[in-house]
Amino acid sequence: MTSDTVRAAPRTPSGTVPGTVPRTPPPPFRRRLGDLPVAVLFVLPAAIGFALFYLWPAIRGAYLSLTRYNVLTPPRFIGLENYEKLFGDRLFWNALKVTAEYVVLNIVSQTVISMLLAVLLYRLTKSMLVRGIVLLPYLVANVIVALLWFWMLDFQLGVVNNLIEWLGFDRVAFFGSDLAIPTIAGINTWRHMGYTALLIFAGLQMIPPSVYEAAAIDGASEWRTFWRVTLPLLRPVMALVMVLSVIGSFQVFDTIAVTTAGGPINATRVIYFYIYDLAFNRFNFGYAAALSSVLFVLLAGVAYLQLRLSRAGESDLRGA
Amino acid sequence: MARIRWGRVAGWAVLVLVMLVTLFPFYWMLRTSFSNTRALAAGAADLLPVDFTLGAYRRVLGLSSTAEAVAEGGSSGTVNFWLYLRNSIIVSTITTAGQVFFGALAAYAFARLRWPGRNAVFTLFVTALMVPPIFTTLPNFVLIKELGLLNTFLGIVLPHLLMTPFAVFFLRQFFLGINASVEEAARIDGAGHVRTFFRIVLPMSRGPIATLAILTYITSWNDYFWPLLVGKAENVRVLTVALGIFRSQTPQGSPDWAGLMAATLFAALPIMVLFALLGRRVIDSIGYTGVK
Fold first, then answer.
1. Which residues contact B133 (CB under 8 A, 6 or more apart)?
2. What is the DSSP letter of A77?
3. Fewer CB atoms < 10 Å away: N or C end of chain B?
């Protein structure tokens, strides 16, 4: 914004000689408009994209949630009927429950493992190769990761079950109704742990070494230093990482779509998959739109709560 | 001193374990892709490919006859992953080029130009970061359908071609950070905003633009939900969608695992090559996505 302090004479379309100062001050309306003509040129493509594919669909989505709509015939306004229907929809409550279960499992395992990994990376090595290896799964598509683990966890032929049997245990039905959600949470933890670890790692690097030196002088053990120094100072970063991870996990879809497709018997019918199913298999767009509005509100609420509870905006570092 | 050493040993042991857990599945993908699907059951525990064959790749790339495919446990349907690779490249390249270019234009207007309503428009743009994609995806699908763009490349790329809030936000942050004096000098020398942008700002921002381009390319390459909705037709089908369809086509009970693994490896390879070439920049870019 500092660039706006010095401004050469506004150039007229006829082409004033550059650098010359006009004798009369520019008319007030020109000054108010500032760089508007150029700005319009620069912002226009993005503004069209925003209006067409963010703003308009948001408004339309809110409207569609108040209609009965199957895409083929025009939407018919039905007021809040879709939302009322939600309360009695067992599949909706099931989807909420299954999603919540997934989010909790995924976030807990991912956070714990990533934190450990980040601390190890920070203490042990600066190697880019190690960081690269750890990040690799994140760069590969969800669909690929899902299919790969679907194969490795196969009941009959999967290498994991072969290992389990070789160790003397019974084979495990990883995609059976009891374990499907933990399994999918595990798969996505595998994909995201390195990525999240690198985010935390970046946070660790921002902690000034002097606080560790102070802790060492006070004779604090590594364990104690971690809990009393590292973790509190990491809080703002962790808060952000957690919000992003939680929002991300609420939207789990790809992994489920290519492995269990919501089954067995709704055991993995998470919200995203339920919305997809409603819209594209049952052509119930209005109801699906209502459900996505609910998800929107839910996510906003969760993010707000998390940021409030974790005091994300404040840092415990003073004068650093 | 000895105690700390032991700590380091234990730490390295855990780190090596994590790396093994990370890398082993990729090895298993490779090992399976060179196996004969019909022989997999007998050699399930073998660490090397079972009954080594390139058959899976031949099937996936549409090179083997139906008889050959069935003999090695493939399905009788033909797939051609070269075509899907082409489609993925088209979609990701256009999306990345458009999004970075138009995003940079808008970001410049928000960072450097002075115009009424600038902050309000910017706030509106950034608010879109918080809307979960599903909320806009359904209406966007309806719009693309109304425009008659289902199963076209344009339909797949359009929603992310002109802007994403993240791209605008990311580049604006960077433009705000660069020293304005060079631009001012150029402006005093008589360069207009358009010229300043193309001749000075863009070249100065090569680094962050490359970072954004890489992130966009990877995101676009890995996207599944949107192309699944609007681009199922074979001629525009991208790799992720093709993988999902290939998986559901495999006969129930005895999927063509070797074929599936060959296909996944084929789909993952371009990103891995990109990563190998640009490793450090990709790793460094991770910080940005989180710090949004």
1. A251, B225
2. E
3. N
What DSSP character marks residue A51? I
Q: Model pTM?
A: 0.87
H or E element, residue A158: none
Separation CA B235–CA B242 (nearest Å)? 11
Does A93 lie at the interface with B, CB-CB under 8 angstroms? Answer: no
Find out whether A286 and B258 touch, Cβ atoms under 8 Å: no
The verdict on A247 touching B (C-beta cutoff 8 Å) is yes
Cβ–Cβ under 8 Å, residues B100 and B212: yes
A77: β partners:
A67
CA distance A193 to A109: 9
* Spatial distance between the Cα atoms of A257 and A184, rounded to a whole number of angstroms: 11
Q: What is the pLDDT of residues A91-105, one digit of tens each?
A: 999 999 999 999 999
Whole-angstrom distance, CA of residue B226 vs CA of residue B213: 20
Query: In this predicted model, what pLDDT tens digit does every residue of B80-101 receive, in sequence order?
Result: 889 999 999 999 999 999 999 9
Q: Which of A8, A43, A61 sits opposite B187 (nearest CB)?
A: A8
CB contact under 8 A, B267 and A144: yes
Tokens of B50: 């079972």
Residue with tokens 């290896």: A133
